[in-house]
């Protein structure tokens, strides 16, 4: 057993929840962002402004979502070059065979294919044939075998969440908003989770609300400690910057989380806020304003995942825009400030507790 362990260590193959559930998942979200998400935004701009060039650029970027995710996963797993490049074919096949649940299929299959490729990498004199051959054969074979059921399961679970949110918008609005928002702040990828589940519609709107509450909430309540740099880095970057402070004093997390518990059901029950853009937008919050952009994109040109669940393009009115701005920016800021004031009065949170950098 020690010889096997030594060989795995030499190949940098580590079976751990962190490597597969955090590193690989986070990298997959980045790959998805750099293909499907940015492509969707560019394509939508092209369609709205009748710019054929932008429409084509966006379409090309969207088309390589599978390869981008798989290569990103391989990079996170520290795959050698021959394995990394071979994962493009694996990602394409897994995403195509997985259908609506393609991202989850890519995650599972790319991890297995990458580790298989690493096992044989540089172990033979014909490495240029063996390494890509093993990586692609393992990955594409698995894509044909297990990607369809993985995709079906992910789509069914996402549909279950969507249906439950429609049936119980208040309670599910709270649950989805709080849980996805907390996932955004934790060192895991809320964007990847939403993409894997194909989270759109009312559930997607609740997820957007929760993520925005965390980012805008932390940005404004930590202004006294971080000033303008912290406001921008958290409000447009990530609330994950607060994780060290949350570990030191978990009470700093109360204000934005309570804010998300309020904005979530407001989004689902009062404003009927639906996120029908690419599912990844549901878990992005105000990072690059991708959450609100996803809502707007869904109004004008719903994603395939949203269309499959009955979404259709709309012409947003004043109430739609007001709801979006209130849920994503104004209410998270005001509610978080209110709750933070109470926490400060109780001396649960003090100056310096949310200092970053």
Structure commentary:
The chain has 357 residues and is an all-alpha fold. The protein has 2 domains: 2-155, no CATH class; 168-345, no CATH class. It contains 16 helices and no strands. It has helices spanning 2-10, 17-48, 52-63, 65-76, 81-98, 102-120, 127-167, 169-185, 190-197, 201-221, 223-237, 243-248, 254-270, 290-300, 304-307, 318-345. Helix 2 (17-48) packs across helix 9, helix 5 packs antiparallel against helix 6 (102-120) and helix 5 packs parallel to helix 7. The radius of gyration is 21 Å and the shape is globular. The relative contact order is 0.11.
Give the topology:
Blueprint: H1 2-10, H2 17-48, H3 52-63, H4 65-76, H5 81-98, H6 102-120, H7 127-167, H8 169-185, H9 190-197, H10 201-221, H11 223-237, H12 243-248, H13 254-270, H14 290-300, H15 304-307, H16 318-345
Helix pairs in contact: 2-3, 2-4, 2-9, 2-14, 4-5, 4-6, 5-6, 5-7, 6-7, 7-8, 7-10, 8-9, 8-10, 8-13, 10-11, 10-13, 10-16, 13-16
